[in-house]
UniProtKB/TrEMBL annotation:
Localization per Swiss-Prot or TrEMBL: Cell membrane
Protein name, UniProt field: ABC transporter ATP-binding protein
Stretch of the intact protein here: 333 to 563 of 584
Top-level taxon in the UniProt lineage: Bacteria
ABC transporter domain residues: 9-231
Length: 231
């Protein structure tokens, strides 16, 4: 179990390729994130950022090296409880036809409306929530087609915050976001990042300004890893 309140993450000489005949997507990647610190992960399209997140979530295994969580190889933890302690907001957010409530709770019916509204409030999303036509009963269309990409992200943040994961991974969408939603997103991220170990994958420097460390990947290798502000 990953019951420790504070979790450190270490990538120890990790190399990975998706297929034997494919190029190495991650090459000898090493870095260490102390417990409850945040890392901004930058790099060009295809540099391996989402792959790194997938490895951490154990959707794939590295061919070489190890990922250590509080010093223990992540493969030694029971998969279900391990994954339950990691919250991911990825580039594709799954939304379905139904109420805003169901899209937030994913049908976990022990979650009360009061809890949801409290989370929305703590994420600083009250204004956005008030703009929804029917509150938690607001209908979301299939794939969230009646929402902007930014709004879909706000729903995903609320979902993740409800789970209170010890590790948080945000894989920022490249989609264009209006300045108001962007400000909301940045504020919500700042709340989400408190008291967890976080990896924030970003295409814009503004999002990672407030992280403790910056990691830059280039063609699957670590180009930089340093305290943010030192680079
Ligand atoms: P972006 O900024 O566009 O999100 P990224 O840094 O997240 O890019 P990855 O998605 O990690 O990049 O991809 C890194 C490399 O791995 C790319 O060359 C990509 O083609 C390859 N790749 C990604 N997913 C798969 C997969 N499921 N099977 C095979 N190759 C993959
Ligand atoms: Mg990606």
């Amino acid at each position: 179990h990953l019951m420790d309140p504070a979790i450190s993450i270490q990538f120890d000489h990790v190399s990975f390729r998706y297929d034997d005949d494919q190029h190495q997507v991650l090459r000898n990647v090493s870095f260490q994130i102390p417990a409850n610190k945040t890392v901004g992960l930058l790099g060009k399209t295809g540099s391996g950022k989402s792959t790194l997140a997938r490895l951490l979530f154990r959707m794939c295994d590295p061919q070489e090296g190890a990922i250590r969580i509080n010093g223990t190889d992540s493969r030694e933890y029971a998969l279900d409880s391990f994954r339950a302690s990691i919250g991911i907001v990825s580039q594709s957010i799954e939304l379905f036809a139904g109420s805003l409530r169901d899209n937030i709770t994913m049908y976990k019916d022990h979650i009360t409306d009061e809890q949801i509204v409290q989370i929305i409030d703590r994420l600083g999303l009250c204004d956005w929530f008030r703009s929804m036509a029917d509150g938690l009963d607001t209908r979301i269309e299939r794939d969230g087609s009646n929402l902007s990409g930014g709004e879909a992200q706000l729903i995903a943040f609320t979902r993740v915050f409800l789970c209170n994961p010890r590790i948080l991974i945000l894989d920022e969408a490249t989609s264009r976001i209006d300045p108001i939603t962007e400000r909301r997103i940045e504020k919500a991220i700042a709340v989400l990042m408190k008291n967890r170990t976080c990896i924030i994958i970003a295409h814009r420097l503004s999002t990672v300004r407030n992280t403790d460390y910056t990691l830059v990947l280039q063609e699957g290798s670590v180009l930089e890893f340093d305290e943010t502000g030192c680079l």
